[in-house]
Design brief:
With about 500 residues, the chain is α/β, with parallel strands linked by helices. The protein folds into two domains: about 5-145 and about 345-490, 3-Layer(bba) Sandwich (FAD/NAD(P)-binding domain); about 155-340, FAD/NAD(P)-binding domain. It is about 30% helix and about 25% strand. The strands form six sheets. Strands 1, 2, 3, 4, 5, 6, 17, 18, 19, 20 and 21 form an eleven-stranded mixed β-sheet that branches. A five-stranded parallel β-sheet has the order 7-16-8-9-12. Strands 13-14-15 form a three-stranded antiparallel β-sheet, with no helix packed on it. Helix 6 runs antiparallel to helix 7 (about 235-255) and helix 7 (about 235-255) crosses helix 8 (about 260-270). The model has no long low-confidence stretch (mean pLDDT about 95).
Length: about 500
């Protein structure tokens, strides 16, 4: 593949984070050279990979979309619509000239003497190797492993005569009239199941523990009203974006301050959609509190309609083992299945699976500490865009991009060739814990990856802030001369 020998900034990933980063870089630094390395054959990230039936956004596109590109459709969109929006954005702002596809980075080596990264990788299709150097490395690979989803190991899986599929690697099976067992309880299950319920012979959902669900129609009355008044799309986008953030902030505060009340309200919303004698206590009453994991959204009550119509059965139990023709639960329930879909989540992608070395020394991601959830100790000139967890990913991705741009401008003003966070005296003055605060947010992927993820400190500057609405008041003006960042001049 034809790559330049050296660029000012390499961005890894051409999904939402990478597109957003490239937009900011090209607008703020017209004289810098930029290269975006994407391991897949096309842009889109999540929305390129996921093509299972019913795939759609779980957050409204006014916040999942970019701040600089208005969304004009319904609040919640399917994967095809989102991909069309991303392609339109890239074309409108002439970003694809910076993209190189089929470029999987495997190693990144920093030289303090040369003040640059050397990236080595391979084309996954042709196995052609490549190498490129860069002054600054911006990781925009997202937050989960793209190559495969998370599927637990169950006894007897090898004996099952049907097909086992993870939604992340959907194979377009023939579902017509088939008995389908879907393992999982989150947003993927809630979007997939209604989409296949009328095609499959029957769908049985097997969940170890229920999730919380919030029901809404796929419309925004204020946006519709503003459109009727011929309000410019840019204004509508910004107004609804701010409204969505405010609503999520209020909801999160209520969930944290009044957990029992929030739990009761969410469960009642579900119960109202189901028959009076339905066992809501078993199938739709989670063990965790609402603020500890994302609340999945049901559009127009489609999942509950499928249950009411008799097309979907919920089974809340552990899985004991697979048989040749289905699954047996821990409670002894036999679920016949021709096809099993493991909607069981994903694994966190720590630094995109790239192996890092600094001056020949290997860097263990689990030993570094994050600076504001963006930079990391021991890793010069390296930033990771990690988006919002309670809100649309894009909101924090944009906040992080603005910080990184401000940092790069500051480095240019100083004549600095590198920057690295250093704990200094803070090391003795704070406790160190998980990258994602498990006391307030503890989904499965965060728990499974805790042992290999970066660390976070108890002082604000050494944390990943989970609440966008708070960080948005801090990060744009956070001082770059706070004593935590050490700048080096190559000369």
């Amino acid at each position: 593949m034809a790559l330049p020998e050296h660029v000012d900034v390499v961005v890894i990933g051409a999904g939402i984070s990478g597109i957003n980063a490239t937009y900011h870089l090209t607008r703020e630094f017209p004289d810098k050279t930029i290269c975006v390395l994407e391991a897949h054959e096309d842009l889109g990230g999540t929305w390129l990979i996921h093509n299972y039936p019913g795939v759609r956004s779980d957050t409204e596109l006014y916040t999942l979309g970019f701040a600089f590109k208005p969304w004009t459709g319904k609040p919640y969109a399917g994967g095809d619509e989102i991909m069309a929006y991303l392609r339109e954005t890239v074309e409108e702002f002439d970003l694809e000239q910076h993209f190189t596809y089929n470029a999987m980075v495997n190693t990144a080596s920093w030289s303090s003497e040369l003040q640059q990264w050397t990236l080595n990788g391979v084309n996954p299709t042709t196995e052609e190797a490549f190498s490129i150097t860069a002054s600054f490395l911006w990781m925009c690979h997202g937050y989960y492993e793209h190559s495969k989803g998370y599927t637990p190991s169950f006894d007897g899986m090898d004996a099952f005569r049907g097909e086992i599929i993870h939604p992340q690697t959907w194979t377009n099976p023939d579902l017509d009239g088939k008995q389908v067992a879907v393992i999982g309880s989150g947003a993927t299950m809630a979007t997939l199941v209604p989409a296949i319920a009328n095609t499959a012979g029957h769908v049985t959902v097997i969940q170890r523990s229920p999730s919380y669900f919030f029901q809404s129609p796929n419309r925004d009355d204020l946006a519709d009203q503003l459109r009727s008044l011929d309000t410019p799309p840019e204004w509508i986008h910004e107004i609804i974006r701010k409204k969505a953030v405010s609503e999520m902030e209020t909801m999160t505060k209520v969930q944290m301050d009044y957990p029992d009340l929030s739990k009761a309200g969410l469960i009642k919303m579900v119960a109202d959609q189901l028959p009076d004698d339905y066992d809501v206590d078993t199938h739709f009453t989670p063990r965790h509190l609402p603020h500890e994991q994302r609340v999945a959204r049901i559009l127009n009550g489609d999942l509950f309609t499928a249950i009411r119509d008799g097309n979907v059965t919920m089974v809340t139990d552990t899985i004991d083992h697979f048989t040749e023709t289905g699954i047996v639960t821990g409670g002894g329930v036999t679920v016949p299945a021709d096809i099993v879909v493991t909607a069981t989540g994903f694994d966190l992608s720590v630094f995109g699976g790239v192996t890092f070395t600094v001056d020949g020394e290997a860097i263990d991601p689990s030993t570094v500490v994050t600076y504001r959830g963006i930079l990391f100790t021991e890793l010069p000139n390296m930033a990771w865009t990690f988006g919002s967890l309670r809100l649309s990913w894009t909101m924090r991705a944009n906040l992080a991009a603005e910080f990184i741009v401000r940092l790069l401008h500051h480095m240019d003003e100083l004549g600095a060739s590198s920057v690295i966070p250093v704990l200094g005296d803070d090391a003795a003055n704070m406790a160190v814990g998980p990258f994602i605060d498990s006391a307030n947010f503890n989904p499965g992927y965060a728990k499974r990856s805790r042992h290999r993820s970066p660390r976070s400190g108890s002082l604000p500057q050494w944390q990943l802030d989970l609440d966008y609405w708070h960080e948005a008041t801090v990060l744009p003006t956070a001082p770059l001369n706070d004593g935590c960042l050490v700048f080096t001049n190559k000369a």
